[in-house]
Design goal:
Elements (H helix, E strand, L loop, with lengths): L1 H6 L3 H8 L6 E4 L2 E4 H15 L3 H9 L2 H13 L6 E5 L5 H23 L6 H13 L6 E6 L2 H14 L5 E5 L12 E7 L8 H11 E10 L7 H4 L1
Helix pairs in contact: 5-6
Length: 232
């Protein structure tokens, strides 16, 4: 398909590009830096602000980022069993919303199921309900992948404080070279993270690689998309 033609490239060429240590010069603020220098500077920025990151988002958007993230998850409309990869999702904002949404869908499914069990004994209904309740996400999983250890650390602490554990995992990884197998996830999300990726072309290549056929790519960002293929 046209999408495959635009996003695919020979594996050797991809590895060769990744092998470039410095790469061409690019901008970081008002500075001109190499690719590697830009990666390091961005890492240092997020390492220093990790504990204040959520507060900074509230300040910069007057809290509207929370509404945007709610809209993103509702657009995703995940069903129980969905496998989500949230890239650059360190503090867990998208992941926690995903879990809440799937739990809500799962609960409605269980309620409908109970209505169809009216001919069963109370003991049978109770055992069935207990079994289903044990897996409140219906097999859904969300993997939060972030390149910054401090961001992941803050996210884990936040998850523990809010009581999230089921269906949740944290992976240290680079969006430009994801540590996952091909065709693994149903949905890939990246919220306010694509701007900090040094090689967006490689990140898109990796997103395409790890998504299952028919999988969905959801990007939440301030900027306008100029590529007509991705703007729809």
């Amino acid at each position: 398909c046209r999408c495959r033609a635009l996003l695919s490239r020979p594996a050797g060429a991809l590895r060769a590009r990744r092998g470039l240590a410095a790469g061409p010069e690019m901008h970081f603020g008002f500075q001109t830096v190499t690719e590697e220098e830009r990666r390091e500077k961005i890492y240092q920025v997020f390492e220093s602000v990790a504990k204040k990151y959520d507060v900074m988002n509230d300040s910069m958007t007057l809290g509207i980022h929370r509404v945007w993230k709610d809209i993103l998850v509702h657009k995703m409309n995940p069903c129980p069993g969905t496998l989500l990869l949230d890239v650059a999702g360190g503090t867990g904002d998208i992941a926690f919303r995903f879990i809440n949404y799937v739990r809500s869908v799962r609960q409605r499914q269980l309620q409908r199921k109970l209505k169809h069990h009216q001919n069963l004994s109370w003991q049978e209904i109770f055992e069935s309900y207990q079994k289903d309740q044990f897996n409140s996400l219906g097999g859904s999983q969300v993997v939060i992948c972030d390149i910054n250890r401090e961001m992941l650390k803050v996210g884990k602490q936040k998850a523990q404080h809010l009581g999230y554990s089921e269906g949740l995992s944290w992976v240290l990884g680079n969006a430009e070279e994801l540590p996952f197998d091909d065709d693994k996830f149903d949905v890939y999300t990246i919220a306010f993270g694509i701007r900090n990726v040094t090689r967006i072309d490689l990140a898109l290549q990796e997103a395409y690689r790890v998504l299952k056929p028919g999988g969905r790519f959801l990007c939440l960002e301030f900027s306008h998309v100029s590529n007509p293929l991705l703007s729809r």
